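Write out this protein's structure.
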Amino acid sequence: MADFREHFVKCCGYEVHVRAWGNPANRPLLMMHGLARLADDFDHVAPHFTDKYYVLCPSMIGRGFSGWASDPDTEYTVPFYVAQMFELLDHFNIDTCDWIGTSMGGLIGLYATTEVAGRIERLVLNDIGPELDPAAVARIKSYVGASPEFETINEVEQLVRLVYASFGVADDATWAFLASRSVRRLPNGNFMMHYDPQVMRVFAEHIDNFDAWAEFEALPCPVMLISGEQSDLIPKSIVDKMKQKKPQMPVFAVANCGHAPHLNDKAQIDAIRDFLSTSTS
């Protein structure tokens, strides 16, 4: 496995934890996690790209080792995340990069790409689109809003296996890894989910009636969609509509997987590598 280096970068006034993989002289590739996840999710993915890329995996504020917002209602939002990512790219002297975004991470990439044309040259959306199924949004709200405490990591893993069953993870080692990276230790010795609960409150209050079709249609760069065939967040009807709007967009469907594919097998990784290697001209 390739080595990574930990960075803590001040972005819009907050420390953002970043794992950087590979040679800084290589082409930059940013990997962005989903709503309730963090940089560690890409520990098994990033090493597969370090032969050609300098891979940056940030944890957005409110998650993991990154700072927590003092004004959650304005700072736990996609526009603020986009502003932070532009500052992050500036910190690393990156003019252009490629982007892989899972769920929320894909939305951040989508808005960043349309806000500053040319900054992101290729965009991979992992099971996310410009429209979200309302029932799936309600499902996500039902579990991210809770802030339970756990006495043991085994209890954490049981919940993680239930909540993230749709990731398509099949091996015990990955489940154990996800469980250990999903929590922080409290002063009383118990565990709690790693994120600021305010992240989820803001999400729940702002996500209804989400519509990013204008931004999707205005994308100035090639885009690829990774789609869980059993995804309830962007079911086939939405995938088909995206394909109608972007006929050249490759779609890689992951069998026996919902929201969102964990990018944890060779076929998924190879499909992304093939897309990123295509010319943008």
